[in-house]
Specification:
The complex is a heterodimer.
Chain A lengths: L3 E4 L2 E4 L5 E7 L4 E9 L5 E8 L5 E2 L8 E7 L2 E6 L8 E9 L2 E7 L3 E5 L1
Parallel strand pairs in A: 2-11
Antiparallel strand pairs in A: 1-3, 3-8, 4-5, 4-9, 5-6, 7-8, 9-10, 9-11
Chain B lengths: L2 E5 L2 E5 L4 E8 L4 E8 L5 E7 L5 E3 L5 E5 L4 E6 L8 E9 L7 E3 L3 E6 L1
Parallel strand pairs in B: 2-11
Antiparallel strand pairs in B: 1-3, 3-8, 4-5, 4-9, 6-7, 7-8, 9-10, 9-11
Classes of the chains: A mainly beta, B mainly beta.
């Protein structure tokens, strides 16, 4: 149980285009989802926290107009990187907390984004 | 605000040797602490977590960690390393048990295993 699935696993896009990454909780209701960014050989940096049906809370320094987060249901959150540039290339990971299990978050397998 | 510091970005041990990965935390309230493992190009897998119950926490794959409040530490150990343990390990902290409580990660420690 407690599986989080991210799609796609990897994506290559051209500069200026937008890319959407999906994060789904497959077997539980995710009250809160978190989006992280990870640069090569570095740690995970929290980008934003999203709760179902409400606006995401972004961490300081994260451009909310560039990284659009939608948490439309209790099993799906999406991250859209708008007008992508090469510097947006990174590994993006989502995690989700299940209703009633707030001390632990379950992680997706990550999405490798390359902007060319 | 909470934070974690992992001492040593890279640790190398021989197969069969003791593994010790260090983590110190800072938190204004009793913390929840985690160790995660990450294999290349994959997400994170939870090894173990401390949630204010027993101070010695046993996790998967033979790993365990001890919460020491006096030292603000939560070091990860394994008595005998195996080649499959080679990976990146992250210590993480969360303040509180609400659904909105963020999990903040340390910088990570890459564990290498020598044959």
């Amino acid at each position: 149980g407690a599986v989080v699935s991210q799609h796609p696993s990897w994506v290559i896009c051209k500069s200026g285009t937008s890319v959407k990454i999906e994060c789904r909780s497959l077997d539980f209701q995710a009250t809160t989802m978190f989006w992280y960014r990870q640069f090569p050989k570095q740690s995970l940096m929290l980008m934003a926290t999203s709760n179902e049906g409400s606006k995401a809370t972004y961490e300081q320094g994260v451009e909310k107009d560039k990284f659009l987060i939608n948490h439309a249901s209790l099993t799906l959150s999406t991250l859209t990187v708008t007008s992508a540039h090469p510097e947006d290339s990174s590994f993006y990971i989502c995690s989700a907390k299940a209703r009633g299990m707030n001390t632990e978050a379950f992680f997706g397998q990550g999405t490798r984004l390359t902007v060319v | 605000a909470q934070s974690v510091t992992q001492l040593g970005s890279h640790v190398s041990v021989s197969e069969g040797a003791l593994v010790l990965l260090r983590c110190n935390y800072s938190s204004s309230v009793p913390p929840y602490l985690f160790w995660y493992v990450q294999y290349p190009n994959q997400g994170l897998q939870l090894l173990l977590k401390y949630t204010s119950a027993a101070t010695l926490v046993k996790g998967i794959n033979g790993f365990e960690a001890e919460f020491k409040k006096s030292e603000t530490s939560f070091h990860l150990t394994k008595p005998s390393a195996h080649m499959r343990d080679a990976a990146e390990y992250f210590c993480a902290v969360s303040e509180g048990s609400s659904s909105a409580s963020k999990i903040i990660f340390g910088s990570g420690t890459r564990l290498s295993i020598r044959p």
